[in-house]
Design brief:
By secondary structure, the chain is α/β, with parallel strands linked by helices. Helix content is 40%, strand content 17%.
C-alpha cells in the first residue's frame, strides 16, 4: 500500500509542501521538523513506488521529459530552451530527469512500456503540439502525474503560449505600417498552437485590414525548408506582408523572397513567431512575437512538483503572455 505526502503530512500536522521541502532538502523547514519528517518516513520503511505520487525511501524522483520533435533536440532552438527551463527548475529537487525525444506522434508499445511501465516513474512532462491523444489516455490510466507543454488535454495540467493575442499583435503591427495584403504562412492546422495563431491572424485581418481578403499558405511542416518552398511557389502573387506561424517558416520565406529579388522590408515585410536566436542573426533581423520559453519550462516543472506533492489535485491550464519584438524585417508598406 502506498503512502502519499498528504497522509504523512496529516499524521505530523503539517502541509504536503512542508514534507516535500524537508525530503528535498529545501529551505523553509526547521531542522527539528525536518528530522521528525525524515524519521517518520524511515519508520514506515517506505519503498520506491512503481508510479504515482507515493514517497520513496531515497527521496529521489524519476521525472520523464518527453519531447516531440522532427529534428534533433540540439538543433531545435524552441523546445531546447523550454527543456532548459525545466532542467533548471528541477535542480531545486532531488530528481532524475529521463529524456526521451520522439520523432513520431507517440511511442510504440514496446517503448511506452520501457519508459512508463518497467521503471519507477513519479511524474512526466510532455512537450509537443501534435502528440497523439492516445498517449495521454494511456498515461492517465497509469495515474502518473503529468504536465503538457504546447498542448492541452482534459484532466491534464498544461502550460501554453497566448498564441491568439500574439498573432493579433503581429497583425496590428503590420497594419500600422500600412500593410493590407498580408498572407499567413502556416504550418499544419491540426496543431493547436498553429490553429490559434491562424485565428488571431483572421481576426486581426478583420480588425485592422477589413477591406483585404485573408490568404492562407499552409505548409506540410514548420521548418525553414517548408517556408522556403511555400514562398517559392507563392512569390509571384500580390502581397506586401507575410505573417509566419513561426520563425523558422519566416526565415525560409525571407530566403525565397530574396532569391526572387525582393528587398526585405522595402518590398515585403515579414514577421515571425517564437523569437528563436536564428532570427536575431538574419539580414535583416527578424521582427517576431516573443515567447517566454524558459518561463514555460520552469512553470511546467513547478506544476508537476505541486501535482506530485498532492497540492494540485485538479487540472490547471497556464497561459503565458507574448511580446512583440520589432526589428528590421518589417517596415512601412512600399511599392513593388
Amino acid at each position: 500500500m502506498s503512502v502519499t505526502l498528504k497522509e504523512i503530512a496529516k499524521e505530523l500536522g503539517v502541509s504536503p509542501s512542508t514534507i516535500s521541502k524537508a525530503l528535498n532538502d529545501q529551505p523553509g523547514v526547521s531542522e527539528d521538523l525536518r528530522n521528525k519528517i525524515i524519521h517518520a518516513v524511515k519508520e514506515k520503511n517506505l519503498r520506491p513506488k512503481q508510479r504515482g505520487s507515493g514517497l520513496v525511501k531515497d527521496n529521489t524522483l524519476n521525472i520523464v521529459l518527453m519531447v516531440r520533435i522532427n529534428q534533433s533536440l540540439e538543433t531545435d532552438p524552441f523546445y531546447a530552451l523550454i527543456t532548459e527551463g525545466i532542467s533548471k527548475e528541477l535542480q531545486h529537487y532531488r530528481s532524475n530527469l529521463l529524456y526521451h525525444v520522439l520523432h513520431e506522434r507517440q511511442p510504440d508499445d514496446a517503448l511506452f512500456a520501457e519508459i512508463f511501465e518497467s521503471k519507477s516513474v513519479d511524474g512526466a512532462i510532455l512537450i509537443g503540439a501534435d502528440l497523439e491523444p492516445k498517449l495521454f489516455e494511456r498515461i492517465s490510466r497509469l495515474e502518473i502525474p503529468a504536465v503538457l507543454v504546447d498542448n492541452q488535454y482534459p484532466g491534464f495540467c498544461s502550460v501554453n503560449t497566448d498564441n491568439y493575442r500574439g498573432a493579433l499583435e503581429g497583425l496590428k503591427h503590420l497594419a500600422e505600417f500600412g500593410h493590407k495584403d498580408i498572407v499567413f504562412l502556416s504550418g499544419p492546422l491540426e496543431h493547436q498552437s498553429i490553429r490559434q495563431r491562424y485565428q488571431g491572424y483572421l481576426d486581426g485581418m478583420r480588425n485592422y485590414a477589413p477591406e483585404a481578403k485573408p490568404a492562407l499558405i499552409e505548409c506540410a511542416g514548420v521548418s525553414v525548408d517548408d517556408g522556403y518552398r511555400a514562398l517559392q511557389a507563392y512569390a509571384g502573387r500580390s502581397f506586401t506582408g507575410v505573417f509566419a506561424a513561426n520563425d523558422k517558416l519566416a526565415i525560409g520565406a525571407i530566403k525565397a523572397l530574396k532569391e526572387e529579388k525582393y528587398s526585405i522590408p522595402k518590398d515585403i515585410s515579414v514577421i515571425g513567431f517564437d523569437d528563436i536566436e536564428w532570427g536575431l542573426h538574419m539580414e535583416p533581423a527578424l521582427t517576431t512575437i516573443r515567447i517566454a520559453k524558459h518561463q514555460m519550462g520552469s512553470l511546467a516543472a513547478q506544476l508537476l512538483m505541486h501535482y506530485i506533492n498532492g497540492d494540485a489535485p485538479h487540472s490547471v491550464d497556464v497561459t503565458v503572455a507574448t511580446k512583440l519584438v520589432p526589428r528590421q524585417s518589417a517596415a512601412a508598406a512600399g511599392t513593388r
